[in-house]
Design brief:
single chain; 178 residues; mainly alpha; 2 domains; 85% helix
């Protein structure tokens, strides 16, 4: 099972690397050669950092990463960090529920009934919906305190870090086992 989990993580990062190296290049209408080289270097750096983050406890480092990316002045920081702390507390509850659902699925994988499988999928979908609602709620608060550009940066980085946390949670799934 550990070997399968390892290969799933490797596969996920390979897919992430492919997306990160090709998607921005396609989205540019007519990039100059210098811009293309710069984008490629940035993408390579991002993939390397994502791989390093997957092996770390992203949840513990999330605030530090966020602070480095946003580079807020004192006034902005005083407005933002209380909102961020509330958001993270609410998000942690949702992540805990999701982790419990994933663990339940993993425990009952070999004897999963149709009813239980359906209930677990519905719980996962509900979790996704709750996270979207939470992001919408806090987007308005972050936007009001930092402005739309910094709010967009916050949610971009937050989404990337949450994807890594989701991969860490999902690594306990017994994919491909009977």
């Amino acid at each position: 099972m550990k070997v399968l989990r390892f290969w799933l993580i490797i596969l996920a990062f390979f897919a992430l690397a492919v997306v990160l190296t090709r998607w921005p290049a396609r989205s540019q209408s007519s990039p100059g050669q210098g811009t293309q080289i710069q984008a490629t270097d940035t993408q390579k750096t991002n993939v390397k950092e994502y791989i390093e983050l997957l092996g770390s406890d992203v949840q513990q480092e999330k605030a530090q990463i966020m602070g480095a990316v946003l580079a807020l002045n004192k006034e902005e920081a005083e407005k933002f960090w209380p909102i961020y702390d509330e958001y993270e507390a609410d998000l942690a509850k949702l992540n805990q529920q999701r982790a419990q659902n994933v663990q339940e699925y993993a425990r009952s994988y070999s004897q999963l009934s149709d009813e239980r499988a359906n209930a677990l999928v519905k719980a996962e979908l509900d979790s996704m919906k709750q996270r979207t609602e939470l992001a919408n709620k806090y987007h308005e608060r972050v936007k009001a305190s930092l402005g739309p550009v910094n709010a967009a940066r916050f949610f971009e980085v937050d989404g990337q870090l949450n994807s890594i946390i989701d991969l860490q949670i999902d690594s306990s799934l017994p994919v491909g086992q009977d």
